[in-house]
Amino acid sequence: MSSKEYLLNQEQIKEIIPHREPFILVDAVEELSETGIKAWKFVTGEEDFFRGHFPQKPVMPGVLIIEALAQAGAICVLQRDEFKGKIAYFAGIDKARFKRVVVPGDKLRLEAELTKLRGSIGFAKAKAYVDDKLAASAEIMFAVEK
């Protein structure tokens, strides 16, 4: 898929969420609605975390896969008019599971579905895939700054 086929590129993503290098973990958004998102992290091997995790066999840390899912979810929430320009903070992670390693060269598909939004507190189910194989999943809770 060429970059022209994406709904949002990373520069447009930076207009929605406050994350910046080296911590922005979403490269492109393919689909976006009020309640869901499909986004991508293209794991190049050049990411800073690979210097130490692990130099002899690079593996994307599971917590950063969850962070990438949370950032995708934040894009979904913070694109709403009532939350534009705000920050969404992690408030909880439940049922996190890791099913396969993510390595340089992988295209990590990030999917998040908003399941509940009560005021500035929200919940989402999130899954990350490589080649249609589940890599990680979690239920995430967030709080949007007031």
CATH architecture: Roll
Low-confidence stretches: none
Q: Approximately what portion of the residues adopt beta-strand conformation?
A: 35-45%
- Put simply, the count of helices is 2
Largest sheet: 7 strands, antiparallel
Strand order, sheet with most strands: 1-2-3-5-6-7-4
Number of strands: 7
CATH superfamily: Hotdog Thioesterase
What class, by secondary structure content? mainly beta
H/E series: EHEEHEEEE
User: Can you tell me the overall shape?
Assistant: globular
Helical coverage, percent range: 10-25%
The CATH topology label is Thiol Ester Dehydrase, Chain A
What is the arithmetic mean of pLDDT?
96
Could you describe the 3D structure shown?
By secondary structure, the protein is mainly beta. The chain has one domain: Hotdog Thioesterase (Thiol Ester Dehydrase, Chain A, Roll), CATH 3.10.129. 14% of the residues lie in helices and 40% in strands. The protein has two helices and seven strands, in the order βαββαββββ. It has a seven-stranded antiparallel beta sheet with strand order 1-2-3-5-6-7-4. Strand 2 and strand 3 form a beta hairpin. The longest helix is centred in the middle third of the chain and has 17 residues. The protein starts with 7 loop residues before the first strand and ends with a strand. The mean pLDDT is 96.
